[in-house]
Amino acid sequence: AQKITQTQPGMFVQEKEAVTLDCTYDTSDQSYGLFWYKQPSSGEMIFLIYQGSYDEQNATEGRYSLNFQKARKSANLVISASQLGDSAMYFCAMRVFGNEKLTFGTGTRLTIIP
Amino acid sequence: DSGVTQTPKHLITATGQRVTLRCSPRSGDLSVYWYQQSLDQGLQFLIQYYNGEERAKGNILERFSAQQFPDLHSELNLSSLELGDSALYFCASSVSVSNYGYTFGSGTRLTVV
After folding, report:
1. What is the pLDDT of residues A29-52, one digit of tens each?
2. Which residues of A touch B (CB under 8 A)?
3. In terms of CB atoms within 10 Å, which of A72, A91, B60, B91 comes out highest?
């Protein structure tokens, strides 16, 4: 079984600062994918970034990057130059290849302070 | 607009009742997934359909059922509703097995009173 742990229930960050959201995972499978989703107060789930277990480089998408440390089983999301619109819930999730189910963590509520 | 359409957006109903949630996947996507998001259990996978057939089942109660129709839209039926069924129900879709996750709809917020 897969498990995702997000240990930060909430974070407050000053606008324009960088922020790191923590995510650790547990699986015995070798082939898997890690995802981050953003959920604003309006409720929709927005895909941010993906990292495959065999990807040698950390994934980046604009201001989002994923700090992937396979040996530590961590997949932290880094948001550079935070903006007020980044205030939302952030979920880390994983999928084991061969199984299309996504397993989600409990989320981190990020609040950007002007 | 993600391209995945869920209706209705909000639903308030009484205990013991039955409701149907509808999902139209993004054009070209064959897989539909249903998730439940509640305060106490977080985001839980319920069920997946691929091109009309059930593909995977998660923590779906026996009181809940789903189907995917030939036009690929899907319906989630919730019956004998209890207060604890109050949650945000998400539908998501993908072309097939995807390394890039799914595209989620905006969800149906169900309140059971």
Report:
1. 999 999 999 999 988 899 999 999
2. 33, 35, 37, 42-47, 50, 52, 91, 93, 95, 97, 99-107
3. B91
